[in-house]
Design a protein that fits this description.
Largest sheet of chain B: 2 strands, antiparallel
Distance between the termini of chain B: 49 Å
Radius of gyration of chain A: 29 Å
Helix content of chain B: over 70%
Strand content of chain B: under 5%
Strand content of chain A: 5-15%
Shape of chain A: elongated
Helix content of chain A: 55-70%
Number of strands of chain A: 12
Radius of gyration of chain B: 19 Å
Shape of chain B: globular
Largest interface: A-B, 48 and 43 residues
Number of helices of chain B: 12
Order of helices and strands of chain B: HHHHHEEHHHHHHH
Distance between the termini of chain A: 53 Å
Number of strands of chain B: 2
Oligomer: heterodimer
Strand order of the largest sheet of chain B: 1-2
Largest sheet of chain A: 6 strands, mixed
Chain lengths: 595, 310
């Protein structure tokens, strides 16, 4: 998230850009042809900005943005041909068409991830292309309205189109900037870096992805509509073709993916090049435009995979490393964790109840008839050998997996089948066996993502995040990038992220694994403090020795079944447990350490 | 019903016959995906290269005159394989290998989109370069077979399609034996399963990838050469087939060569049968719909496995 000052600077940059384009159009460029090229540069920049809004920020690559572009163009053309509708109405209306198309496409397609999403997106414009061919809209020419050209957006002076297209670019830039600086943008970035973590931290990833696609579709359609007005002749191939989809992403990637200015830079560099070559050599070399884009994309992937913008930024400013000054004066250590601003809940009733929960993967019964009641306000340990179903149990509780049968109640209400973000909102926080950080965000930003649950505004979210970092003793590292943290710091950061919305139940998945002895004590202190603050903690662990000292209650899981439950000392002396998991040697060690 | 039983049988037969060549090109794509886990956008354009290679071999270099109008086109189609194999080898050596394989395997999650984008770039270059070199006029390899049919009952079987079907299935069978019984074929599958482990075991993953990639595009090119005997084409023909291929491979299960064969065959049948109830122009839209349905309902395909990690 940018600071307010940075956002202000960006707004000035956008203004400067607009002035520069106007000067270029009105003072420098003389021929109508160059004005047309400039208009195209601006319109493609808008398409690419729209693509970037979805794919650059959220990481869901769309190979099918032509579907929005083409629908926009056809909305305008068909509106004018059949309804005598002026583009002044139909171009803005195209935004609605694009948004609806985005919703219709997103609804099924966001069930897919990665390659499958990209492939499915590819299919939409190509399928639509054939439909428009079949409908007989092979080549639509917009009728000339000589009696009222202005009413139909038909200008004598090509600079009018430049101004209109520039208006769209500025609007798209401002929207992108707004998104970048809000929790919308943070949510998309979190989805890009680790979607399950974002979902578990209470972000309704589905909703933000849908919003991003609808917004992106609306912007792309509006640009496509204006493109139709400018070109006057529309064919399915030119507006739904692969080259349109490819151009949207190539311009953004060339310029700098996920950056505000990347798509604009890409359009300014590549579109005139391709257009110029096409005009000069188009008769002799008919496909030169596509070849240029092909070469551009290969070059950029091989030599500057992040795009021109980031490359130049790296070279000149050496992207200053985040200053390592803590944002709060208190550089607390783990032992001095600040108390939770909340009264401890009374001990007693069951906070989490699982009844006969079962789930199978193919033939494997990962969980088989689990009955579990976890009382409020305690430290509850779950142990079991590898493959016993421990992590699956957490995944079922926090909503990553829907159980095949059984019911889960949290705080007296059923939560079976809810999305992880909904379950998080009800007060279930979790950490992961393999830490799921947002590696390119700072520690503070990582935790802010968790704070969006329940924080009325972004400033409050920031304050809550700072407080949570203080509680786990990570304030000093708040502006470090998460990718460079040690295991102990990552675990603490994940704890802070789960803590920040003030959960009533914390699920800790092997939080102690892989830690050195010294680091262990710090984290144990934090966990004990959680219990003291009234948070119910369920912890999965292999580190038996630490667990016996830590937890109030032990449950043993094996092959998806609960085989023992009770006080730690009793459970570890249970002969079947000893025999199955711990071995006799270990019992002797406990006996020694207990003395 | 808007169509007769005979129409149905006719469409079914046509679907199976074109499905043979589709199955072969799906195997080509499947080998590449199976070995490299790379989505190759340019596969349709290698198919196009195979078509033009066969075309020029037949008409330009006298294979037709030498082997006669029946053998010439088939030999030319098979010769298109090595030619496109060589082109694929060079492209992999200088471009694709730089975003795939050993160098990238170390960086978790890196390069996934780089790979797709590089193949997208290759696709744009081949397509539009093809437009420059070959021109935009549709061409086809005309043989006496294209105009003749065998009759079985009331069902007409185009002879060119029948011949290409048998050669396609024969080559597909040969590929199956190669992958399952030869040392090289097994090595390709091993490198596919876990490139990192394969590197530690001393397998040259880059080389395995290059072989898989080149074989994959070569096989698809042969399929292109066979299709060229009964269908006209132009440099943009790859578009029409790229979704056919992906639908077939995804239907069979990404990564399963056996599945790719049946997937491709089935897509051929879907495409031809769709003309019974849909206008001719929408046959590829029918494939898109099937493709989307598979992706949504059963992304692991008929024969694939879905591995999940939490």
């Amino acid at each position: 998230m940018r600071t307010r000052a940075e956002a202000g600077r960006q707004r000035w940059a956008i203004l400067g850009f607009a002035v520069a384009i106007l000067v270029l159009s009105f003072v420098v460029l003389k021929s109508a042809y160059y004005q047309l090229v400039l208009t195209q540069v601006l319109l493609w920049a808008v398409l690419s900005l729209a693509w970037n809004l979805l794919s650059g920020y959220s990481g869901y690559f769309s190979f099918g943005h032509a579907v929005f572009w083409g629908l926009g163009a056809y909305t305008v053309a068909l509106g004018m041909l059949y309804l005598d509708l002026t583009p002044w109405i139909s171009v803005p209306f195209a935004a609605l068409v694009g948004a609806v198309a985005g919703a219709i496409i997103g609804y099924p397609t966001f069930r897919l991830r990665g390659h499958y999403f990209a492939l499915a997106m590819l299919a939409y414009p190509l399928a639509t292309l054939y439909v428009f061919q079949w409908l007989g809209y092979q080549e639509l020419a917009l009728p000339m309205k000589r009696e009222a050209p202005l009413l139909y957006m038909q200008f004598e002076d090509p600079r009018a189109y430049v101004v209109l297209a520039l208006g769209l670019v500025v609007a798209a830039l401002l929207i992108s900037l707004k998104v970048e600086n809000s929790r919308f943008g943070m949510a998309l970035l979190a989805i890009k870096q680790n979607e399950p973590a974002a979902e578990a931290a209470g972000i309704n990833t589905w909703r933000w992805k849908m919003l991003a696609l609808m917004l992106s579709g609306a912007i792309a359609s509006i640009a496509g509509g204006l493109y139709g007005v400018v070109l006057l002749v529309i064919t399915p191939e030119t507006v739904f073709g692969m080259l349109v989809s490819a151009q949207a992403l190539i311009l953004a990637l060339f310029g700098g993916v996920g950056s505000l200015w990347g798509p604009v830079i890409g359009a300014m560099l590549l579109v005139p090049l391709a257009e110029g070559l096409n005009a000069e050599l188009g008769d002799v070399l008919p496909g030169i435009q596509g070849v240029v884009y092909g070469i551009a994309i290969i070059m950029i992937i091989l030599w500057a995979p992040e795009g021109v913008y980031w490359r130049v930024l790296d070279r000149f400013s050496r992207r200053a490393p985040a200053p390592n000054t803590p944002e709060t004066a208190v550089a607390g250590i783990a032992v001095n964790v600040a108390p939770l601003p909340r009264a401890p809940a009374p001990l007693g009733g069951s906070l989490l109840v699982l009844r006969d929960v079962g789930i199978s993967f193919g033939g494997l019964r990962a969980l088989d008839g689990i009955d579990l009641a976890i009382p409020e306000g305690g430290l509850y340990g779950i142990i079991g050998p590898n493959g016993a179903g421990k992590t699956t149990l957490f995944n079922v509780i926090n909503g990553f997996l829907a159980p095949d049968r059984g019911a889960i109640n949290f705080s007296g209400e059923p939560i079976t089948g809810l999305r992880p973000s909904q379950i998080c909102r009800r007060g279930v926080g979790r950490t992961f066996q393999v830490v799921r950080a947002f590696p390119r965000m700072t520690v503070l930003e990582n935790v802010i993502v968790g704070a969006f649950v329940g924080a009325p505004d972004d400033a409050t979210a920031r304050q809550m995040a700072l407080a949570a970092l203080d509680r786990v003793g990570l304030s000093a590292q708040s502006s470090a990038v998460a990718g460079g943290l040690t295991t102990r710091e990552l675990r603490l950061m994940e704890l802070a992220r789960a803590l920040v919305p003030h959960p009533r139940l914390m699920l800790l998945d092997e939080t102690l694994a892989g830690l050195a002895h010294d680091d262990l004590d710090g984290i144990l202190t934090v966990i004990r403090q959680l219990r003291a603050d009234g948070i119910t903690v369920v912890i999965i662990e292999h580190t038996m020795q630490a667990m016996v000292k830590l937890v109030d209650h032990f449950t043993v899981l094996d092959h998806g079944r609960l085989i023992a439950s009770g006080k730690p000392d009793d459970v570890v002396r249970d002969p079947s447990v000893i025999e199955a998991y711990l071995g006799k040697k270990w019992v002797d060690r406990v006996a020694v350490s207990a003395k | 019903m808007p169509f007769s039983a005979n129409d149905f049988l006719q469409a079914l037969a046509a679907g199976i016959l074109v499905g043979g060549a589709y199955a072969l090109m799906c195997i080509g794509l499947g080998i590449i995906f199976g070995a490299m886990r790379v989505i190759n956008f340019a596969q349709g354009d290698f198919l196009m290269l195979g078509m033009y290679a066969a075309f020029y071999l037949t008409t330009g270099f006298g294979v037709l005159a030498f082997l006669g109008p029946y053998g010439g086109p088939i030999v030319a189609a098979f010769l298109a394989g090595p030619i496109v194999f060589a082109i694929g080898w060079v492209l992999h050596r200088f471009i694709v290998a730089r975003v795939t394989g050993a160098g990238v395997a170390q960086i978790a999650g890196a390069g996934a989109y780089g790979q797709i984008l590089v193949t997208l770039g290759i696709s744009l270059i081949l397509q539009n370069g093809g437009l420059i070199v070959f021109g935009s006029t549709p061409v086809g390899i005309r043989t006496p077979l294209s105009r003749q049919s065998w009759e079985i009952g009331d069902v007409l079987l185009n002879q060119a399609r029948v011949v290409s079907f048998f050669f396609a299935v024969a080559l597909a069978g040969g590929m199956y034996l190669f992958l399952s019984h030869t040392r090289l074929g097994k090595g390709l599958r091993a490198a596919a399963d876990n490139p990192q482990a394969a590197i530690y075991m001393g397998i040259d993953v880059d080389r395995a990838h290059r072989i898989a990639w080149s074989i994959g595009v070569g096989i698809t090119a042969v399929a292109g050469g066979l299709i060229a005997t009964f269908q006209t084409f132009q440099p943009y023909v790859g578009f029409d087939f790229v979704i056919v291929m992906y639908a077939g491979v995804v239907l069979g299960g990404l990564g399963s060569n056996f599945g790719a064969f049946w997937g491709g065959l089935l897509i051929g049948v879907v495409q031809q049968m769709s003309t019974l109830i849909l206008p001719y122009q929408l046959q590829n839209t029918a494939i898109f719909v099937v493709f989307l349905l598979i992706i949504f309902l059963r992304p692991q395909g008929m024969f694939g496995r879905l591995s999940e990690r939490t």
